[in-house]
Design a protein that fits this description.
Largest sheet: 5 strands, mixed
Number of strands: 5
Distance between the termini: 76 Å
Shape: globular
Radius of gyration: 26 Å
CATH class of one domain: Alpha Beta
Mean pLDDT: 91
Number of helices: 29
């Protein structure tokens, strides 16, 4: 390869990856709250690498609730940065750039270099991938999508021309994505199925069917150590230990009954020592038993989830509705031939992981898996729109300023340098719009009720009272995290049960959100409404008002 060709081949992806990298460094510098599942992953990585075991401090069994991929990533990056939250942000930065490159390479192979660049720019700049992962509460989305789409890229290479190396690389990257989030198994199923259909379409069929089989074998071999460890802990062989538990605890979310979800997730198990989310008792929950117990009710949940998916998908956070216009152009402006039909079928199969959440419940951070494919189609559509604009302007220019023949008209239109650059105008305008709009989404990104700015304020006011090893019990993990304490989840239980549970785990402080007390756990309302007169065993420490006028956070100290 000549030096000129090398530069031509690698200059675009290098600049594209650098753009995504720099933007994410800028966005990661903004103030944010570490909340949701993110602290779990960070604490797990810390405990794992410090020799305390792969579990949170309040239970002593190996944690099969959270796959070890993200704890491993953040633990390594913590060693390099010296700060767990910063490690999480560097994961977002690095894997955000990798996702951009994976989508660019896939779109380039399917539609060509211009469409690949447009799709890569959408991934680099759009809110769904550029900033929203910072505020969804897990930070697993960038590595999960980056590794999964890299696996999809190698699967597409095999889809066009079966080669064992591409199949193996696809299996390895999909397995790495599984270690970050187990729903990557749906990517495996989707890729295996489309590769199987491709194998059956061309001879020799029997030999070609060995390639999707090799994909599955590579994936299973890569994840088998984890499956074996889960089996040791739970006694259950399962490729996704969260399916049954999700069915068992997600009905409340699916039907919009948050009090029911609170009880399903944070209620005490039969021992009274653990909340259900962290209990062994959810390890063997059966998805089939849940569905068969009330098929009609489950059908209503599916219908509601499908409507919720459409509502949440087509907004500025994920895929703005106006991108449906270039998406439609990308798909249908030109007639399909056989090769194009196969390519579109391949891309359609990559939507299955995001669509699969209709079976459980729908949130933005789950269905973001739809976005890379939608952006590929929209990116190609932006180029098609630019091509239409270039041809139209060239034709109008010719008709106004020239009386040339038809053949000269085509030559004139192609030769006009300004018209050639018009192909990039729709993409450039949209990128400029995203550069303005994307940073503003941080102000509206937190899930209502799940975390609030007053939680951060409560943590800051509590921090001076916290000593190393102190435990803060709270429904909202952000309070403990930002106070520099260990965390204990507040169970959805009676006050007496909560106090017994807290003493059993050695909690020193208890932070209660007023919204939690009045909307989810009315048995705790007196502790917020009349904090000056707590029950025996509690002493009022702080009342932290919400500057927006909403419910305060009340913090108690446990006393003997």
């Amino acid at each position: 390869m000549t030096q000129h060709r090398f530069r031509k081949t690698w200059l675009t992806p290098t600049l594209l990856g650098l753009t995504a990298f720099i933007l994410r460094i800028v966005y990661a510098g903004a103030s944010r709250i570490v909340w949701g599942d993110e602290p779990f992953y960070l604490w797990l990585g810390r405990n794992w690498f410090s020799g305390k075991g792969y579990h949170l401090w309040f239970y002593d069994y190996w944690d099969y609730h959270h796959t070890p991929g993200y704890p491993f990533i953040t633990a390594v990056l913590t060693r390099l940065t010296g700060d767990m939250a910063r490690a999480s942000e560097w994961s977002y930065i690095l894997f955000g750039a990798l996702l951009t490159l994976a989508v660019y390479l896939l779109a380039r192979r399917i539609y060509g270099p211009k469409s690949g660049l447009a799709a890569g720019l959408l991934i680099a700049l759009a809110p769904a991938t550029a900033i929203m992962p910072l505020y969804w509460g897990t930070m697993t989305e960038p590595p999960y999508l980056a590794l999964a789409m890299t696996g999809v890229y190698f699967a597409y290479r095999a889809f066009r021309r079966f080669r064992a190396l591409d199949i193996i690389l696809a299996g390895v990257f999909l397995a790495l994505a599984y270690y970050v989030r187990p729903e990557a198994v749906v990517y495996l199923g989707a890729m295996g199925l489309i590769l199987g259909l491709r194998a059956l379409s061309r001879a020799p069929r029997i030999k070609n069917l060995g390639y999707p089989l090799l994909l599955g074998m590579t994936f299973l071999l890569a994840i088998f150590p984890y499956l074996y460890k889960v089996h040791q802990v739970t006694g259950v062989w399962t490729i996704s230990q969260k399916v049954g538990a999700n069915f068992a605890t997600a009905e409340g979310l699916a039907i919009g009954d948050f009090r029911q979800f609170d009880i399903e997730t944070w209620g005490l198990d039969s021992t009274g020592e653990h909340v259900r989310f962290f209990s062994h008792e959810t390890a063997d929950a059966s998805a089939l038993a849940y569905i068969l117990s009330d098929p009609i009710a489950y059908a209503r949940i599916l219908y509601g989830n499908a409507l919720k998916l459409l509502t949440q998908l087509f907004n500025i956070h994920l895929f703005p509705w106006y991108l449906l216009i270039p998406l439609a152009l990308g798909l249908f402006r030109r007639a399909w031939d056989r090769k194009r039909a196969w390519n579109e079928l391949f891309l359609a199969f990559t939507l299955l992981p995001g669509l699969s959440f209709i079976l459980f419940f729908v949130q933005e951070r789950y269905i973001v898996a739809l976005v890379p494919t939608l952006f590929i189609w929209a990116g190609h559509g932006l180029i098609e729109l630019g091509g239409w604009l270039r041809e139209t302007v060239g034709s109008v220019r010719y008709s106004v300023f020239s009386n040339q023949s038809s053949g000269d008209k085509e030559s004139s239109t192609k030769g006009w340098s300004a018209a050639r650059w018009l192909i990039w105008l729709p993409t450039a305008l949209l990128m400029a719009f995203f550069l303005i709009v994307t940073p503003r989404q941080a102000n509206h990104a937190y899930a209502a009720g799940s975390v609030r700015p007053v939680h951060l304020q409560a943590a800051r006011e509590l921090a001076p009272y916290v000593e190393p090893g102190d435990v803060v019990m709270s429904r909202y993990v952000a309070i403990a995290w930002h106070a520099g304490a260990e965390w204990l989840p507040t169970p959805a239980a009676s006050l007496d049960e909560i106090l017994t549970y807290a003493r059993g785990h050695g909690a020193k402080f208890w932070a209660i959100d007023g919204i939690e007390a009045h909307n989810l756990r009315p048995q705790l309302a007196p502790l917020v409404d009349d904090p000056a007169h707590p029950p025996p065993g509690l002493t009022l420490l702080l009342v932290v008002p919400d500057k927006t006028g909403q419910e305060p956070v009340v913090i108690y100290r446990f006393t003997p």
